[in-house]
Every structure is written in structure tokens, then in C-alpha cells.
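Format notes (please read before filing issues)

Several people have asked whether sequences and C-alpha cells are stored in separate files. They are not. Every record keeps both together, in the order shown below: the sequence lines, then the C-alpha cell lines. Line labels are part of the format and must not be stripped during preprocessing.
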Amino acid sequence: MARPNERSIHSRPIPYLGGAAIYLASVMAILAFGPQDKATQMAIVFGGFFILLVGLIDDLYTLKPWQKILGQFGSALVVVFCGVDISFLTDPFTGAVRILGFLTIPLTIMWVMCFENLINVSDGLDGLAAGITGITALVTVFVSARAGVPSVSLAAAAVAGSVFGFLPYNFHPASIFMGDAGAMFLGLALSVLSVQGLVKSTVAVAVFAPVLALLVPISDAAFAIFRRKSLGGPISRADRDHIHHRLLELGLSQKKAVIAIYIVTGVFGCLGMFSTFLPISGSGPIAGLAVFGVLMAAQRIGIFAMPGDKAKQSSEKGGQKRTR
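Then the structure lines:
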């Protein structure tokens, strides 16, 4: 059970293990339908099972940050062992293929671990991580098909279906949580799908699509690292200053905050899909415009403010109200 604590949004114990349901639904669909890319299939099945176990242990007993990172590293090694790796990149400007050589395994491991943590960071409100993942998976279905990898599209559709099947039970008020097990599994699945369907594609700009769809959790994680390092604390320290927390502080309900992030994710995902029809000279400015928009929105909702600044602003507002 996820029991409420000082950081929780929910006020009553809610069961975990939704991640196990998402994993089983994804894997059953991937194994049932074909043709599949074998490396993609095995990486999601075996790498996903590894990180699912790590997440379940964390949900039950609360792992230390270094233990969780070690588990994520192990799952990334399983993914590489299954044949998924970023062995080359296509230069978007010249179309030339760049062989990565000794950087292949380290880059792949970092890619998998980053995706696992991105989805885990976004799992702060009912239905938030599930919706973001579902939208990103749908974007991957379209873009991987356009990139000439329809077998990866099938796996992406399986992941999207499992998430949207789970979402009615996870949307506010949630009756079950996916937990770290589900969030990290979905992160691993998206990392594998993006590598196999997009990163190594000859359509070089295809990788922009899922990255743009994940721009909210990417920016949220970046802001969190900057904020925690500025305060002199470890980057693994939890706080209540994520984007979704700030939206709640602005007066939005859980549902409205989640739907707002869904809309932003959907818009960025559509921009990413649209960018695949353009040369790099056209898709680059789209990505830049999206990043600029996120920065402006972050400034507006106070993401860049330190906790001390927030307290000071609240005190000043309270003083102004008492004066009036």
C-alpha cells in the first residue's frame, strides 16, 4: 500500500502493483502479435522484468538511491545483452552514418537509465505518468512506422494499449498506483522503443518526436537537479517543487493539472511528428521554440524560485493582505 506521508498528494492508503498489470499486459500483447523485432521484444520482456522486480522491492521496502540506481544499471545491461544498443547515429545535416564504437554501451546504458528516471519523476499525480507515457508511445507508433520500422510500431502500440487500459483505474481519484515498478518499466520500454525505432533510423530527425513529447518530464528533471544542487543537497533528495506541485499551488485541481500537462505533452508530440516531414533546417527551430515555451511557462509558474524565495513571497503576500 502507498501510505500517505509529508510529500503525498493522496490522503488515504492506495494499493501498488499496478506496474505488474502494465508489464503483463504489454508483454502478452507483444508476444501475441507479430512480426516483432526480436531485440526489441526480448529487451522489453527480460529487461522490463528485471526493472519491475527492482521497482517492486522499492515499493515494498524503499530502496536507498544508490540501490535503485544499481538496479537501473542492471536493467540497462540486460537491454544491451538482448541486442539493443546505440551503435551508430545518423548525422541530421549530412545524412552520414557515425559509428560510435566504444561509446555504444555507455551511451545505451545512460539512455535507458535516463528514461527510467524521467517517467519515475513524472509519477507525482494520479494518472500523470501513465498519460504522458501513453501519449509518447502513440507518437512512437507513428514515427517508427514513418521511419520504416513497423515492427517497433507494434511493440509501441502494445505499451500504449496497456497504459490506456490501466489509466481509468489510475486517473483521479486513483484506485491503484503503478508505483516505481510501473514507472521504471515504462521508462525502460520507451527507451528501447526509441532506440530501435528512432535513434538508429535513417530519418535522423525522427528522434525529436519522443524527446519533444517527453519535454515536460525532461525539463522537470533538469529543473529539479538545478534546484537541489543550488541548495547544496543531493540530487536524489525528494521535494514538493516539481511542475505538478507548482500547478497545484496555483490553484488547479489534480484533474486540471494532469489534463494541462496532457495537453502540453500532446502538442509537443504533434510538433515532433510534424518535424519528421521537415528537413533539419525546419525541425530544429520547432524544437527550439518548444524549449523556449517550456522555459517561459516554468518561469511563470515559479519553477526557478528556490523554496526560501517561495516562503518569502508567501509572507509578503500575507503581509499585504493584513495591511489591506
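For reference, the curators noted about this record: The chain has a mean pLDDT of 80. Residues 38-61 form the longest helix (24 residues).
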